């Protein structure tokens, strides 16, 4: 398996995404207070927030809700690796599809790692003080209770919409105002790439049954 080129591509993708994701998160966590922002361009900011649960700030209430979410993520990631990476490599599926699934897997694992160990090695981030790495009194949360670090903010356009637009006319609108991280980006890009190139990735799979049917007809 280690000498398989498809496996090597998958491993490289996973390690690259995880490395960039975790380095940036640790840098933000130790150099930004909650709400701190650095603007590189009008359309690209680093803005530090922490996500207690799922995407868009959604969360499951209480300690058990967070624990359930973390366990679900771990199980889902294990399924992605086995069914969509290991099986795809074994069945010699398209390298592009394997790379996309590896990016999705790495993104899921990247956010799981925040939950697993960020609460153990960092003090609490607040709007008034930086987090400390390996604080004397221990971290801010137990195992699987850490918060996910988000920082990428792309306000491509913001302003008041024209009055002629139904329902939203005249209201202030920002596109887009979501704040996310490298792991989220890997998941999103992987899913979009699969949707865009699915015919290219799965052409051979669609042709195989037709060949079998033709052979049966001849016999």
Task: For this entry, give a set of tags.
alpha+beta; two-stranded antiparallel sheet; 219 residues; disordered C terminus; 4-stranded antiparallel sheet; 5 helices
Structure description:
With 219 residues, the protein is of the alpha+beta class. Helices cover 54% and strands 13% of the residues. It has helices spanning 5-31, 62-90, 95-121, 182-201, 203-218; strands at residues 37-41, 44-51, 148-153, 157-160, 172-175, 179-180. The strands form two sheets. It has a four-stranded antiparallel beta sheet. Strand 1 and strand 2 form a beta hairpin. The longest helix has 29 residues, at 62-90.
What strand line-up does the widest sheet have?
1-2-3-6
What does the radius of gyration come to?
22 Å
**Straight-line N-to-C gap:** 38 Å
Count of separate DSSP helical elements: 5
**Helix amount:** 40-55%
Give me a quick take on this structure:
The chain is 54% helix and 13% strand. With 219 residues, it is α+β, with helices and mostly antiparallel strands.
List the helices and strands and how they pair.
Layout lengths: L4 H27 L5 E5 L2 E8 L10 H29 L4 H27 L26 E6 L3 E4 L11 E4 L3 E2 L1 H20 L1 H16 L1
Antiparallel strand pairs: 1-2, 2-3, 3-6, 4-5
């Amino acid at each position: 398996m280690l000498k398989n080129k498809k496996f090597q591509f998958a491993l490289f993708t996973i390690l690259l995404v995880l490395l960039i994701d975790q380095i940036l998160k640790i840098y933000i966590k130790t150099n930004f207070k909650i709400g701190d922002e650095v603007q590189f361009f009008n359309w690209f900011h680093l803005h530090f927030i922490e996500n207690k649960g799922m995407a868009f700030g959604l969360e499951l209430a209480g300690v058990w809700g967070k624990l359930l979410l973390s366990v679900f993520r771990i199980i889902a990631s294990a399924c992605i690796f086995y069914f969509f990476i290991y099986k795809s490599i074994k069945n010699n599926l398209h390298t592009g599809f394997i790379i996309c699934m590896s990016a999705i897997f790495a993104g899921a694992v990247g956010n799981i790692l925040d939950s697993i160990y960020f609460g153990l090695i960092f003090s609490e981030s607040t709007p008034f003080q930086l987090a400390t790495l390996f604080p004397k009194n221990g971290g801010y949360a137990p195992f699987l209770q850490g918060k996910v670090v988000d920082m990428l903010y792309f306000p491509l356009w913001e302003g008041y919409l024209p009055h002629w637009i139904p329902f939203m006319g005249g209201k202030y609108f920002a596109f887009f105002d979501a704040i996310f991280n490298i792991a989220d980006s890997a998941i999103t890009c992987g899913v979009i790439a699969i949707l865009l190139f699915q015919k290219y990735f799965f052409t051979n799979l669609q042709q195989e049954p037709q060949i079998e049917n033709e052979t049966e007809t001849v016999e």
